[in-house]
């Protein structure tokens, strides 16, 4: 029965220490608690061996020395914990060096047996006679215990009424319970020659340790919510530890027990030991291979995939994602965070690229506008003089029919040049927008009404879809009419053999989006990229100057909107205009 209690206590201590440490391994309080649990586990192991497997006639001094030294180390851990909890502050090294200095005398005294005159354990009866230095040792241990408790009590008064105060108060109760039980079992009763409870001293400390762990874990140790949180985020350390423990227990049951029975069934001879050692080594390969496979599948392979994906991103493959099975451990969170980061990076870079193209396009438009204004001014003056001379020559009676025909040809070319210079002037001098609340349907209707005067446009099929209760926009109706008229006429030019124009307007968030699409042949990649550049046109020579879409771009950007072009999946091109909706105040 005693051995089962010791085994249970040892297992519980290991689980508690592991759980609290892994919960926050960077916390000094959690680190110190783990150290305290490690010393207490050594104490329990010592008692397990001594009280259950110790043989009579054997030197029992090792148990007494271990008891003294481990009890001292546990008090050191308690004092350090009192220093660092709950602020997670640093250990005062100079104070610690002075306070722990007596250990330089007491620990060697315990190792060399100076703390007892004799110790005996025979016929189930335990006796020990201590020296004066042992009483000094015990006094020093209790001094450390009360010193640590006093620090915690002072912090309890400082943080009373807060979460930290509740934690400190619970830890104080744990110390009180542990101190009383340990004092009764290890000091009070042995002083009167009663050693019956000495073998249970490692069991008596468990209530205090449970309270200790419960408090340091923010009172979440036994809560259902804490269990659910651990299920949602199950640390990789837990998985590996549980897997190793399961593999060890199963391999021991399947391999070691049968091998031990087969090897020693005829006695513990040299040949039996040889068989046991050889086949134990062979059987150990199986669980080791399983553990290796576990590490590779759980850690190495996912980390390798994340590394390769990171290298791809470094090489410029933004948006690369890690294809891993979803898991609720750190690697699963890392992979999911990497995928989100990669997608966000690709989106941000694409957005920066678009912004850079818009800035470059705006700079080009400004430069071209200045140039266009100068060119138009320099050309218009000579053209006006030439046009006046032609009119004068026409009025003279001496001109014959052939000369008049030549003059008409010259006049038509002058008109053509005038149209170009007018486009240049319009491009360079976009008048300030007179913005009012505008209904998108009215602007589209007026643009289509003007386009209907073109005979070719009348042959096209036009479909208009405008979302009901579409919000108004703050805009210059005449300028927007110019934009949409230009877009529908461009669509007409893209379908010389006839076709269909579709116009739709919908609300998109806080903006209004208008799409103008045609069923023509569409645009190539270069034309999509350079559609709004000044003087770029896909029309034949003499049919366009390449300034219409540039003017549209300038008008829409002046309205804090955007204009884009793309090819329709079913054929043709689609221009999309997005303008902020008018906010009702």
Overview of this structure, please?
With 585 residues, the protein is α+β, with helices and mostly antiparallel strands. The chain is built from 19 helices and nine strands. The protein has helices at 2-23, 28-53, 61-84, 93-99, 103-111, 132-158, 163-191, 201-204, 206-216, 224-232, 236-264, 270-314, 330-395, 401-428, 440-451, 455-458, 477-493, 525-530, 548-558, and strands at residues 116-122, 125-130, 436-438, 461-466, 473-475, 500-508, 511-518, 562-567, 573-580. A five-stranded mixed sheet has the order 4-6-7-9-8. β1 and β2 (125-130) form a beta hairpin. α12 (270-314) packs parallel to α13 (330-395). The mean pLDDT is 80.
Topology:
Layout: H1 2-23, H2 28-53, H3 61-84, H4 93-99, H5 103-111, E1 116-122, E2 125-130, H6 132-158, H7 163-191, H8 201-204, H9 206-216, H10 224-232, H11 236-264, H12 270-314, H13 330-395, H14 401-428, E3 436-438, H15 440-451, H16 455-458, E4 461-466, E5 473-475, H17 477-493, E6 500-508, E7 511-518, H18 525-530, H19 548-558, E8 562-567, E9 573-580
Parallel strand pairs: 4-6
Antiparallel strand pairs: 1-2, 3-5, 6-7, 7-9, 8-9
Helix pairs in contact: 1-2, 1-9, 2-3, 3-5, 3-6, 6-7, 7-9, 11-12, 12-13, 13-14, 15-17, 17-19
């Amino acid at each position: 029965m005693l051995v089962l209690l010791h085994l249970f206590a040892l297992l519980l201590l290991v689980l508690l220490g592991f759980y609290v440490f892994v919960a926050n391994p960077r916390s000094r309080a959690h680190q110190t608690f783990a150290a305290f649990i490690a010393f207490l586990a050594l104490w329990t192991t010592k008692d397990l061996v001594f009280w259950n497997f110790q043989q009579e006639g054997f030197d029992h001094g090792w148990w007494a020395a271990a008891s003294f030294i481990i009890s001292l180390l546990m008090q050191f851990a308690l004092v350090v914990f009192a220093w660092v909890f709950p602020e997670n502050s640093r250990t005062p090294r100079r104070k610690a060096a002075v306070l722990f200095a007596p250990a330089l005398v007491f620990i060697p005294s315990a190792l060399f047996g100076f703390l007892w005159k004799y110790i005996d354990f025979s016929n189930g009866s335990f006796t020990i006679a201590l020296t004066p230095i042992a009483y000094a040792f015990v006094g020093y241990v209790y001094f450390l215990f009360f010193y640590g408790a006093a620090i915690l009590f002072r912090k309890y008064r400082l943080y009373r009424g807060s979460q930290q105060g509740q934690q400190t108060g619970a830890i104080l109760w744990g110390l009180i319970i542990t101190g009383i039980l340990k004092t009764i079992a290890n000091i009070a009763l042995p002083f009167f020659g009663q050693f019956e409870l000495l073998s249970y001293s490692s069991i008596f400390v468990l209530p205090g340790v449970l309270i200790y762990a419960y408090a340091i874990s923010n009172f979440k140790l036994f809560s259902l919510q804490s269990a659910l949180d651990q299920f949602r985020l199950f640390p990789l350390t837990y998985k590996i530890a549980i897997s190793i423990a399961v593999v060890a227990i199963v391999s021991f049951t399947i391999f070691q027990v049968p091998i031990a029975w087969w090897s020693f069934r005829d006695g513990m001879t040299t040949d039996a030991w040889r068989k046991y050692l050889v086949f134990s080594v062979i059987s150990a390969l199986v669980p080791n291979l399983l553990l290796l496979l576990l590490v590779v599948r759980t850690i190495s392979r996912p980390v390798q995939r994340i590394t390769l994906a990171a290298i791809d991103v470094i090489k410029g493959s933004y948006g690369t994602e890690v294809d891993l099975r979803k898991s609720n451990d750190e690697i699963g969170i890392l992979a999911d965070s990497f995928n989100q980061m990669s997608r966000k990076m690709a989106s941000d870079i694409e957005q920066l690229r678009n912004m850079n193209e818009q800035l470059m396009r705006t700079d080009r438009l400004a430069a071209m506008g200045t140039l266009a204004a100068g060119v138009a001014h320099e050309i218009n003056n000579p053209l006006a003089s030439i046009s006046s001379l032609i009119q004068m020559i026409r009025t003279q009676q001496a001109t014959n029919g052939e000369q008049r025909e030549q003059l008409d040809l010259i006049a038509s070319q002058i008109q053509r040049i005038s149209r170009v210079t007018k486009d240049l002037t319009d491009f360079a001098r976009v008048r300030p927008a007179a913005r009012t609340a505008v209904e998108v349907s009215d602007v589209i209707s007026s643009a289509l009404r003007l386009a209907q005067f073109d005979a070719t446009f009348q042959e096209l099929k036009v479909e208009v879809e405008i979302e009901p209760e579409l919000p108004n926009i703050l805009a210059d109706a005449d300028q927007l009419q110019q934009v949409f008229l230009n877009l529908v006429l461009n669509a007409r030019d893209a379908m010389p053999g006839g076709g269909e124009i579709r116009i739709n307007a919908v609300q998109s968030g806080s903006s209004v989006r208008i799409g103008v699409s045609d069923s023509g042949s569409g645009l190539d990649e270069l034309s999509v990229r350079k559609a709004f550049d000044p003087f770029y046109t896909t029309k034949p020579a003499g049919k366009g100057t390449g300034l219409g879409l540039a003017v549209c771009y300038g008008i829409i950007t002046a309205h804090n909107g955007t204009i884009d072009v793309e090819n329709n999946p079913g054929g043709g091109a689609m221009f999309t205009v997005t303008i902020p909706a008018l906010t009702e105040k």
